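Researcher: Go.
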Amino acid sequence: MIKLKKATKKYGDGSTALDGVDVVIEDGEFVFLVGPTGAGKTTVFRLLTKEIELSSGEVEVDGEDLRKMRKKDIYKLRRKVGRIFQDLKLLDNRTIYENTAMVLEIFGKKKNEIDKEVKEVLKSVGILGFKDKFPAQLSGGELQRAAIARAIIGKPKYLLCDEPTADLDPETTWEIMDILRKINDDGTTLIVATHDIDIVNSFKKRVVKLLEGQVTSDKEGKYD
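Model: Structure:
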C-alpha cells in the first residue's frame, strides 16, 4: 500500500508543490495521476522514491514511514519502487542489454542469472532483437520498451510511470500501454502520470486528478 496523508511539500522559493494531499493506493491497483504541468505529479513520484522530503504530513510505502527511513536504507526502497522517467535516463554509451543488466549487477546477481533474466525481460517487452544496439539506434517506442525493461528487471512491487507515451505515435502508444497493462495484471501496482486523456478514458481505471498541489478528484472510470 502507498499512503499520503496531509502530504505537503514547499520549496525554498516559497512555492507549494503539494498542499495537504490525502491518497491511498492499494497493492495491485492501476492508477492514473492526471493534471496540468506543475500540478504536483512529479513531486509525488519524487516523494515515493525519497528523492525529496515532505515539509509536513506523512508518506508510507508498503507499510514503512519514509520520514523515518535512514539514508543507508533508501536503496531498499528503490528496489521496491521502480520508475520510468519521462526522459528515460538510458545510458547512451551502453547497449540495451547492458542498460538492463546493470540493475541486476548492482543487486549482486551472478552472470548467468543476469543473462537469463535480461533476455527474458527484453523478450517480454518485444526488443530482444535489439539487445546489442545502443539507445541512439532505437526508435522512440523501442526506447520506451527499453526503459520499461530496465524498470521491471528487478521485479519491483510498485512502478511509477512518468508520461510513458509522450511523443509517441498512436499505434506505439497503445502498444506501450498494453505492456503496462500486462505488468499490472501480473501483480505490480502501477501509477501512471499522463496528459493523454484518450488513454485514461479508454482504460477506465482509477483517476486521481491534481490541480495546484491538491487532489480535486479521485474516482474510477473517466477524467473530466
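Model: DSSP finds seven helices and ten strands in the chain.
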